[in-house]
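Sequence design from tokenized structure. All designs in this work follow the same two-part layout: the structure record, then the generated sequence. An example of the structure record is given first.
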């Protein structure tokens, strides 16, 4: 009888560990998916910035080369990327946008270019999508980090090596979405 009770307790514990592990994996995968979505949106922004660089080429060769050098530093953000990787890409994108704004200030007729305006509109759309993806990522990280810190799940999380994830921080000096409308 004692043996049956011991086996039953062990079976319940094993089932509980499996259940907790499955929940942790599910939320971990959600955070990876959210980071991947950020990468997809950033990639679209990079493509739009590349199109803008080509438009700028006819106005200022030096700015074009500078912008192309910044664009060449881009890297892909995947589900395996860290919050720091995504932040670094955001900084590069912001630097590219600053370069574009400098050119636009120097060449006001660029503002009137229909292709430029359409491309800037798409950059703004992708900017909004990145913001939404960042919020989704941080919300998912909150849920995941809470799970791995709360007892009793924290016991299984620690035993299986689930570690806390970093949040995406708002870029320094960026409190509202910039307007690229000219």
């Amino acid at each position: 009888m004692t043996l049956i009770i011991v086996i039953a307790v062990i079976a319940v514990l094993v089932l509980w560990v499996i259940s907790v592990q499955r929940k942790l994996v599910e939320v971990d995968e959600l955070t990876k998916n959210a980071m991947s979505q950020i990468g997809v949106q950033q990639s679209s922004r990079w493509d739009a910035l590349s199109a803008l660089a080509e438009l700028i080429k006819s106005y200022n060769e030096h700015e074009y080369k500078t912008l192309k050098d910044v664009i060449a530093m881009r890297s892909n953000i995947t589900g395996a990327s860290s919050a720091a990787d995504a932040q670094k890409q955001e900084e590069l994108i912001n630097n590219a946008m600053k370069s574009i704004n400098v050119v636009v200030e120097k060449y006001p007729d660029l503002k009137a270019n229909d292709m430029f305006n359409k491309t800037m509109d798409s950059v703004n759309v992708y900017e909004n999508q990145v913001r939404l993806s960042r919020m989704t990522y941080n919300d998912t990280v909150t849920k995941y980090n809470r799970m791995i810190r709360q007892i009793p799940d924290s016991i299984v999380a620690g035993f299986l090596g689930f570690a806390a994830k970093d949040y995406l921080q708002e870029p320094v000096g960026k409190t509202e979405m910039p307007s690229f409308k000219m």
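The mean pLDDT is 88. We note this feature because it recurs in several other targets discussed in the main text.
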